[in-house]
Design goal:
Blueprint (H helix, E strand, L loop, with lengths): L11 E6 L2 E12 L5 E2 L3 H10 L7 E11 L2 E5 L14 H7 L9 E3 L5 H4 L15 E5 H7 L2 H6 L2 H18 L3 E4 L2 E4 L2 E5 L8 E7 L2 E5 L7 H4 L6 E2 L5 H18 L3 E2 L8 E7 L2 E6 L7
Parallel strand pairs: 5-6, 6-7, 7-8, 12-14
Antiparallel strand pairs: 1-2, 2-4, 3-13, 4-5, 9-10, 10-11, 11-12, 14-15, 15-16
The structure holds zinc ion.
Length: 292
């Protein structure tokens, strides 16, 4: 008698955007604390999770995306590394399963600096995981997390978890860091600032010919709730009102333009479209395709 299989398929999935290959990579998952959700009652959270067959607390994917364009390789997001427990920190393994090694990465693009996005830039010894990569981050995120006055004003938990962690990552990359604003930052990839969740929160638009993909970072954390209710914000949004406005604007644009999106917390592999539904929106996940 053989043992029941216990391991899932490797955590990568490829999609072609024109001649660009985008590979979703899983860093694992986290079980969200619904206490951080604002502008929504606990009863409504429970009702939506029940209606959409989701566990409570909601289990969120943590994704990153490899972009291979014109012979070059970029990684969008670095995951959480060793810092957030055994359900996360799978990014390098997923990447290697997909045939790419950390040393192959020439550019790392971050959507913002938060533990589940940027802590994986370094290993447990504090060394850079991507030694050959230039690290590109929006200048407003680098400025914010480096701001001593903002750090001093933050409560203890945020000071350690966000400010100090971001500073450690920036220090490890030293001269490899380049700040960005908007426009083309890599072949076929444009930075699109979407401030609110953090001051420098940035989406990346991958485009080639008529095909495109908006990798929207943390536009939503709990898809079932914030796509339906874009006004639901998070305790750790830097500017909750701006974050809600931006979320609605992006969902509206994606629905109007029939734009394909991908997200760091959209269920893996995270490719979907957006349609209007009632006062809010709904995600339509893309079907699994055999052919890249
Ligand atoms: Zn975040």
């Amino acid at each position: 008698m053989s043992a029941a299989p216990g391991r899932q398929a490797p955590g990568f999935y490829r999609k072609r955007i024109g001649d660009v290959v985008v590979t979703a990579l899983s860093d694992g998952y986290l079980d969200a604390d619904v206490g951080v959700l604002q502008n929504i009652s606990r009863a409504e959270i429970d009702r939506i999770l029940h209606e959409t067959f989701r566990p409570s607390p909601p289990r969120l994917s943590v994704n990153a995306f490899l972009v291979q364009a014109k012979g070059r390789t970029a990684l969008i997001e670095a995951g959480s590394g060793h810092t957030m427990g055994p359900s996360l920190g799978k990014l390098v393994a997923s990447m290697e399963d997909a045939g790419t090694r950390p040393a192959d990465i020439e550019t790392v693009l971050l959507t913002h600096m938060h533990p589940d996005h940027s802590n994986g830039l370094t290993d447990a010894s504090g060394a850079a995981v991507y030694p050959n990569a230039e690290l590109l981050i929006h200048e407003d995120d680098v400025r914010h997390w480096s701001d001593d006055a903002a750090m001093a004003a933050a409560p203890e938990r945020k000071r350690v978890r966000y400010f100090q962690a971001a500073r450690a990552q920036l220090a490890a990359y030293g001269g490899q860091l380049r700040t960005i604003r908007d426009g083309e930052v890599f072949p076929n990839v444009a930075a699109v600032p979407i401030p609110g969740h953090t001051p420098g929160h940035t989406a990346y638009l991958v485009a080639d010919g008529n095909d495109s993909l908006l990798i929207w970072g943390d536009t939503v954390h709990v898809p079932e709730i914030q796509v339906r209710h874009p006004d639901v914000t998070l305790d750790f949004d830097s500017d909750p009102a701006a974050s809600a406005r931006m979320r609605r604007r992006i969902l509206d644009m994606a629905a109007t333009d029939r734009l394909r999106i991908a997200g760091m917390h959209v269920h893996f592999p995270g490719f979907a479209h957006v349609v209007r539904r009632g006062e809010g929106f709904e995600l339509v996940p893309e079907a699994w395709e055999m052919v890249v």
